[in-house]
Amino acid sequence: GKRQYDRDFLLGFQFMPACV
Amino acid sequence: TAVTSPEQYIKHPLQHRWALWYFKNDKSKSWTENLRLISKFDTVEDFWALYNHIQQPSKLGFGCDYCLFKDGIKPMWEDDRNKLGGRWLMTLSKQQRHNDLDRYWMETLLCLIGESFDEASEDVCGAVVNVRPKGDKISIWTGNCQNRDAIMTIGQQYKERLSIPIKTLIGYQSHDDTSSKSGSTTKNMYSV
């Protein structure tokens, strides 16, 4: 299926440490 | 505790790879020389790494643009995937540069990379923010101005997402009409 991400989910990653 | 779930290591892939472009108005150079590709990304994490690294639109100089387009589509009318299309256009007042511009642009980016318009997201080519002395503009570009259903879905959901008052109309204009206009206004094909 389509990879859809809602607003709050996306915002949750804004200040996460960078992944490998 | 070294044991962690694989999810913590795998970045979240986006439906599309996106390219962020920057346009700086330098009159000694051609339009295409002024348009620069900044970077491409295809995960949520890489999007934020880029977004957090660059200036907000309100900090750009007059005449500058950011463009976010699906990989393979150039941010210009002439691209094959744009030439039959058009854009939902929001013109901001001068006051809105301070209050709304950066917030609207971030919401626009999240709508695109998150595929917020469901099936109509397939019609999206990209989005542009123009920083201009008379008033900044943000637009979402779609690929075919005849695809009424997809365009209306995008316009309605976009307006809702930005919490634009119902009474405030936003218009969709074909690139054909925009590029051939003689005066300062282009007719709207659709509005919401």
Overall number of strands of chain B? 8
Oligomer: heterodimer
Q: Whole-number average pLDDT of chain B? A: 94
Largest sheet of chain A: none
> Tell me about the biggest sheet of chain B?
8 strands, antiparallel
The rough form of chain A would be described as: elongated
What percent of the residues of chain B sit in helical stretches (DSSP H or I)? 25-40%
Our measurement of the CA-to-CA distance between the termini of chain A, rounded to an integer number of angstroms, reads 26 Å
How does this structure look, described?
- The complex is a heterodimer of chains A (20) and B (192).
- By secondary structure, chain A is mainly alpha-helical.
- Chain A has one helix at residues 7-11.
- Chain A is elongated.
- Chain B is α+β, with helices and mostly antiparallel strands.
- In chain B, strands 2-1-3-5-6-4-7-8 form an 8-stranded antiparallel beta sheet.
- Chain B is globular, with a radius of gyration of 17 Å.
What topology does this entry show?
The complex is a heterodimer of chains A (20) and B (192).
Chain A: H1 7-11
Chain B: E1 13-23, H1 31-34, E2 35-43, H2 44-51, E3 65-70, E4 86-91, H3 94-99, H4 101-113, E5 124-130, E6 137-142, H5 148-161, E7 171-174, H6 175-180, E8 190-191
Antiparallel strand pairs in B: 1-2, 1-3, 3-5, 4-6, 4-7, 5-6, 7-8
How would you describe this structure in keywords?
heterodimer; A: 20 residues; mainly alpha; B: alpha+beta; eight-stranded antiparallel β-sheet; 6 helices
Task: Please give a quick description of this structure.
Chain A is mainly α and 20 residues long. Chain A has one helix spanning 7-11. The longest helix of chain A is centred in the middle third of the chain and has 5 residues, at 7-11.
